[in-house]
Write a structure and sequence with these properties.
alpha+beta, 3-stranded antiparallel beta sheet, 12 helices
Length: 400
């Protein structure tokens, strides 16, 4: 942890209550500095997410751009685009295959769920968007289309109305659904007025194929060209409309139970490209593959028509608990926004039709039934590398 939140503090019930209920001083929602805590949904394990060097660079360039003149903004955008293209080419090169094992070792990835042996990947990117074995990500309530499932292994924040999302999380001054859908599906913007809004962000250590969230018929995927800003929550909570400016692919699904659902695949800094592996007109089912991102962190947005669904309450409770706290470690006083997101897996329930009860098996386990190994795995997936101290994971009470 980074000095102001320790690993043991993050597990204590009293500390969780403090950081989800209290703010100090004059610090306001939407401030630009942030510390991101991620809570694993099943175990309740809370850990701090570490930011890579390139994400920190992207955030620095983004904020520099916000304060710059138009000419410098153009240079920054050009630099981010160039960095993303170069990284994509680098990881498509066969030489990059030698970096796979180091990546596996650092992130302690579970190769037993990967479809192909590691030596069969021709370059790093092929491994990055690797396929998993068919049973690796089962669909919750597979015979009930009224249950909505997670489109990705991800960190999530969800809101039952767009108004809630914009008060707490999405801070871009110019963010609108019309801007997000652009020229791809402008006629559909009104149907999502104050509807459900879900954000599902993939970190580099996550499985980078994304999946179908609802049963239905898939529409035509449409590309909107754009920028390559980082999709880190610090960027999303800035004045810049990251989702509306970044390159993205819009995929409509006319669902069986939830109206027309928009899946927005947002590219980001260091993401080579977004590939859709399904075709318009196909009948799609929950947890089936939809596509994949090449190297980098990326985000899936889900848009729902108002009144057609409700997100699971344990997810909305966390999302509405984005919080601020004032922390001082030496001089000067540092203002920190602590944002709690939920860690999910593909196929896990995230919502349901209003007339359908929540799918409870995907909710948090009773604390006494959580094993040391499960807590360790949650910590690894959140932080991006194997935690060295298993005893500290097993010992303290897990925060609610």
């Amino acid at each position: 942890m980074a000095g102001f939140v320790t690993s043991s503090q993050a597990q204590r019930k009293w500390y969780s209550k403090v950081i989800t209920k209290i703010s100090y001083g004059g610090y306001k929602l939407g401030a630009n500095s942030a510390n991101i805590l991620v809570q694993d949904r099943i175990t309740g394990q809370i850990n701090e997410e570490r930011m890579s060097v390139y994400v920190r660079l992207g955030i620095r360039l983004l904020y520099k751009g916000l304060k710059s003149r138009e000419m410098e903004k153009k240079r920054i955008r050009k630099l981010l685009r160039s960095l993303s293209f170069k990284q994509g080419k680098k990881y498509d090169d066969p030489i990059s295959a030698r970096e796979i094992q180091a990546f596996v070792n650092f992130h302690q990835l579970d190769l037993s769920e990967v479809l192909k042996p590691i030596e069969q990947f021709r370059n790093f990117n092929e491994f990055f968007y690797r396929e998993l074995k068919p049973d690796a990500r089962p669909c919750s309530a597979p015979n009930n289309p009224k249950i909505i499932v997670s489109p990705a292994d991800c960190r999530s924040v969800v809101f039952n109305t767009l108004d809630e999302a914009q008060k707490i999380w999405v801070k871009g001054r110019d963010f609108t659904i019309s801007t997000l859908l652009g020229d791809a599906y402008p006629e559909d913007a009104k149907r999502y007025t104050n509807g459900g809004f879900g954000i599902f962000r993939l970190a580099p250590q996550d499985y980078h194929r994304f999946h179908i969230p609802v049963d239905g018929i898939m529409g035509e995927p449409k590309l909107i060209e754009g920028e390559y800003y980082t999709v880190n929550p610090m960027a999303i909570r800035s004045a810049l409309d990251v989702y509306g400016e970044n390159i993205r692919v819009i995929v409509p699904i006319d669902s069986v139970a939830h109206g027309r659902v928009m899946v927005v695949c947002v590219g980001a800094m260091m993401v080579g490209s977004t590939v859709i592996t399904r075709k318009a007109g196909e009948k799609v089912r929950r947890a089936e593959e939809l596509g994949y991102f090449k190297f980098g962190g990326s985000t899936i947005l889900l848009l729902f028509e108002r009144g057609m669904m409700e997100f699971d309450y344990d997810l909305t409770d966390n999302s509405n608990g984005a919080l601020e706290t004032l922390v001082s470690y030496g001089k000067p006083i540092v203002y920190i926004a602590i944002l709690i997101t939920r860690q999910l897996r593909v196929g896990m329930s995230i919502g349901h039709h209003p007339e359908q009860a929540q799918y409870t098996p995907d909710m948090r386990k009773d604390e006494k039934n959580v094993t040391v190994e499960e807590r360790q795995e949650a910590k690894r997936r959140i932080e991006g590398s194997l935690a060295p101290d298993m005893a500290s994971v097993a010992g303290p009470t897990v925060a609610k």
